[in-house]
UniProtKB/TrEMBL annotation:
Its cofactor is pyrroloquinoline quinone. Residues 96-275, 402-477 form the Pyrrolo-quinoline quinone repeat domain. This is Pyrrolo-quinoline quinone repeat domain-containing protein. SMART domains: PQQ. InterPro entries: PQQ_b-propeller_rpt (IPR018391), PQQ_rpt_dom (IPR002372), Quinoprotein_ADH-like_sf (IPR011047).
């Protein structure tokens, strides 16, 4: 296990006040999943221009996830394929998620095979490892959330990359494990059992950010991805709907047990689905069907309505009434706010011009943020569509960032990436300042006024930014580099090797 520590998982002792209020314990910061440093006081719109590079650490490879922070120590992964034999076979594996602080342990998932691993925070020694799914394409891309001795995480896969003849049987699931032993305590699948047969339901991965936990309701909130395949009856239903000339709802072909493109509340104790809201309609897609004219492919539309992040929990006033909301942004570019009691829709940006254009990798992806006054999201604009910057009429073909009113979803501002890169990484908010990065080859990071979207400060890190910032005690921490996965064949993406600390001077 020492090899895992030295090549993949790094811990850095940094000068952070060792208090729990400054910790950043998973992808979303804590179990609210807001990506909000709510105790931050040193960083503000008035001081953001005084951010200065404090140190730069050579990690050796790409850093594509938000660093975790606990008790004055940073924990991060570098994107590097490692050997974990004899623990896991095959020998090559990787983790690209934020490691989760779990008392004296770190818990994290692997990007194939689909194991969850717990190690000692002090020295990286293996405590336990558990395989969540034996499908050969299964993996864990979600960061996970730890609460009262238990670890909660979803399973995903890259089965979408296989040939038409091989596709598809994987079913996304959500799992609760014992933090002490790694034993699986319950598992909830997002689709009906396909018994290993192709041509029926497959997909609905649970793959982004970290789930949020509602202690009062005993709920955990998650969101899911698209279908890889659907039963013949569903495909035929969609073909009939595509040929109709009258108006028809997009949900006619969505069956009740199809929890793809959905926001769900699960019971913390049992995993039982308490409520769900399917928000993507019919959305069946895999890579061979990028060419929509392929006659072997299921009928469209191919909406790209994945949720690439779990919902955030926030409380706000809607029409003068205090409401507890679960809010998430889709790869389609739409944001959705649901009532945490029952999953009913409170608002969505479908009512307005959408937050921004969707795309193969977003749209909104990997993680929005909220300070409860506003909801913030990236718009990756991976397909380079025209992106109208609300409330102006200016248009960009790059990515950008959007601020929305938490009460109703109305778009308050949109800011384009000044260098016209895509904006794939999650956003982070701290005391009125929004932090984000660009995939542009020089790797700019930005601090924006969260009220207006005005850029207050920027810095070129020298390589693509694909991850997000963690914030603590007047400092922000960013890694750079993404010449792997979807960035491998993108000429605009560049490799990096460094972790940066910027602090208010």
């Amino acid at each position: 296990m020492e090899l895992l520590l030295s090549l993949c998982l790094l811990s850095l002792l940094v000068s952070i006040a060792a208090t729990g209020s400054n910790d950043w314990v998973n992808h979303g910061g804590n179990m609210l999943n807001r990506r909000h440093a709510d105790k931050e006081t040193k960083i503000s719109p008035g001081t953001a221009s005084r951010l200065r590079l404090k140190w730069k650490f050579n990690a050796g490879r790409d850093i594509s996830a938000t660093p975790a922070i606990s008790d004055g120590t940073l924990y991060l992964f570098i994107y590097f394929f490692i050997k974990m034999e004899p623990f896991i076979s095959p020998a090559g594996t990787v983790s690209r998620s934020t490691p989760v602080i779990a008392d004296d342990m770190l818990i994290f998932g692997l990007g194939g095979p689909a194991y969850v691993v717990a190690v000692k925070r002090s020295d990286g020694r293996l405590v336990w490892l558990t395989q969540l799914d034996k499908h050969y394409k299964a993996l864990v891309t979600m960061s996970g959330t730890y609460y009262k001795g238990h670890f909660y995480v979803g399973t995903s896969s890259n089965e979408e990359t296989v040939s038409f003849e091989q596709c598809c049987i994987f079913r996304g699931s959500f799992v609760k494990l014992s933090g002490r032993t790694g034993k699986i305590l319950w598992r909830t699948y997002m689709l009906p059992d396909n018994f290993g047969r192709r041509g029926v339901y497959a997909g609905a991965a649970v793959w982004g950010s970290s789930p949020s936990i509602d202690i009062r309701r005993n709920h955990i909130y998650i969101a899911t991805g698209n279908l890889y395949s659907a039963p013949k009856r569903v495909r035929e239903c969609q073909e009939r709907q595509n040929n109709r000339t009258d108006t028809a709802t997009n949900d006619e072909c969505v069956e009740p047990e199809n929890h793809s493109d959905s926001i769900l509340a699960l019971d913390l104790d049992s995993g039982k689905i308490k409520w769900f809201n399917q928000l993507g309609g019919y959305d069946v897609w895999f890579f061979e069907c990028n060419n929509v004219s392929n006659p072997k492919c299921p009928p469209g539309p191919n909406l790209g309505a994945d949720f690439a992040a779990a919902p955030m929990m926030l409380t706000t006033y809607v029409n003068g009434i205090k409401r507890d909301l679960a809010v998430a942004v889709q790869k389609s570019g739409f944001a959705w706010a649901l009532d945490r009691d029952n999953g009913n829709l409170i608002w969505s940006t479908v009512r307005y011009p959408q937050s921004g254009p969707g795309g193969l990798t977003g749209g909104g992806t990997w993680g929005a943020a909220t300070d409860e006054k506003r909801v913030y999201t990236n718009i990756a604009n991976s397909d380079r569509k025209n992106f109208t910057l609300q409330p102006s009429t200016k248009v960009t073909t790059g990515g950008g960032w959007v601020g929305m009113d938490s009460k109703n979803g109305s778009i308050l501002w949109s800011t384009a990436d000044p260098v016209n890169g895509t904006a794939n990484g999650p956003v982070t908010v701290a005391n009125g300042v929004l932090f984000a990065g660009s995939t542009f080859r020089q790797g700019p990071i930005y601090a924006m006024n969260a009220n207006t979207g005005k850029i207050l400060w920027s810095y070129n890190t020298g390589a693509t930014i694909y991850g997000g910032a963690s914030v603590s005690n007047g400092c922000i921490y960013f890694g750079h580099g993404y010449k792997v996965s979807v960035g491998l064949n993108d000429p605009g993406f560049t490799a990096g090797k460094s972790l940066f600390a910027f602090c208010v001077s």
